[in-house]
Amino acid sequence: MAATIRDVARLAGVSPSTVSRALSLPGMVNAATRARVAAAVEQLGYEPNRAARGLITGRTGTIGLVVPDLANPFFSSVTKGVQARARRHDVAVFVADTDEDPAAEAGLVRALSKQVDGVVLCSPRASDEELAAIAQDTTVVLVNRTAAGLTAITYDNEGGMRQAVAHLVALGHHRIAWVGGPATSWSTQHRGFGLRNAVEELRATLAPVGNFAPTYEGGMAAADQVVATGATAVVAYNDLVAIGLLARLHSRGISVPGDLSVVGVDDIAMSRMARPALTTVRLPKQEAGRIAVELLLAMLDDPEGSTGPDSSAGAHGELHGELIVRDSTGPAPPN
């Protein structure tokens, strides 16, 4: 039979209520008692009942995760990071997919906020004002997006784009096309900004193609316009778009990288399986998910200190990408 809280109390030599406090409110129990309770829990393999613990702490033991598109492997990887770290803290995760619909985000978060302790919002498309309103209803941490006053973990998009451009310029490319993602995407804006700065710094020319769906089909749709720019290289919003570009270029008989070099962003698993294998800026996706959970739980554990100078609230962490060179980039074709 599974061990009960009374079994733990008996072995630790304390009352059941002390066991409950040691597990739920450890700051109210002295270190020696906490150590005895922890040893008894481990020896007996005791697993606290989440519902019972919630009656004591006022917490549900669950968090929400809202992503734009679970079919996109980038978001699947972030989700795995969130779930893995939440599991370590004995916290369950409810996942919601907005299907790239900015109008759905606020409604989903408000629905989730009635059932969870806080929400991780990954790459939200909502405006800063809408995000601020959402944060009035529940504790929020952003991934791959910043907004004034909200805690966030992001990527160094500018640095990643500079790596990509420096690589292409070193290969002799001086006219580089840019296929952006959704116009409302924070990443589109910051990657485009970083790309323009890098191109200017390295004395190349940028040929923006426009905004496309962040999907394989989006890349297919952009390919003909990329070719029309006369660029010898193209940087795509993400790997799915880049792989769509590869497919359409192949169908047109355009050699990659002989005629046109292609760079993606994310380093999803498919980028290694593409033909040719895709050069891309690798982003630490699961790490972002893990950090987001730690930030969210820290804010939940110290709500009264959430506005203090040492608080996690309003904090902004940044992760760095790494250019992974594969077969889709090569020397610029001769004039």
Give a concise summary.
This protein is α/β, with parallel strands linked by helices and 335 residues long. It contains 13 helices and 12 strands.
Can you offer a commentary on this structure?
This protein has 335 residues and is an alpha/beta fold. The protein has 13 helices and twelve strands. The strands form two sheets. Strands 2-1-3-4-5-11 form a six-stranded parallel sheet, sandwiched between helices. It has a six-stranded mixed sheet with strand order 7-6-8-9-10-12, sandwiched between helices. It is elongated.
As a whole number of angstroms, the C-alpha radius of gyration is 24 Å
- Enumerate how many helices there are, as a single number: 13
Mean pLDDT: 89
Which quaternary structure do these chains form?
Answer: single chain
Secondary-structure-based class equals alpha/beta
- The percentage helix is 40-55%
Number of strands: 12
Biggest β-sheet strands, sense, barrel: 6 strands, parallel
Q: Write the H/E string, N to C.
A: HHHHEHEHEHEEHEHEHEHEHEHEE
User: What is the strand arrangement across the widest sheet?
Assistant: 2-1-3-4-5-11
Shape: elongated
Distance between the termini: 77 Å
Strand content: 15-25%
Low-pLDDT residue spans? 306-311
Question: What layout of secondary structure does this protein have?
Answer:
Elements: H1 5-12, H2 16-24, H3 31-44, H4 50-57, E1 62-67, H5 73-88, E2 92-97, H6 102-113, E3 118-122, H7 128-137, E4 139-143, E5 151-155, H8 157-170, E6 175-180, H9 186-201, E7 205-211, H10 216-228, E8 233-236, H11 239-251, E9 261-266, H12 269-273, E10 279-282, H13 285-301, E11 316-319, E12 322-324
Parallel strand pairs: 1-2, 1-3, 3-4, 4-5, 5-11, 6-7, 6-8, 8-9, 9-10
Antiparallel strand pairs: 10-12
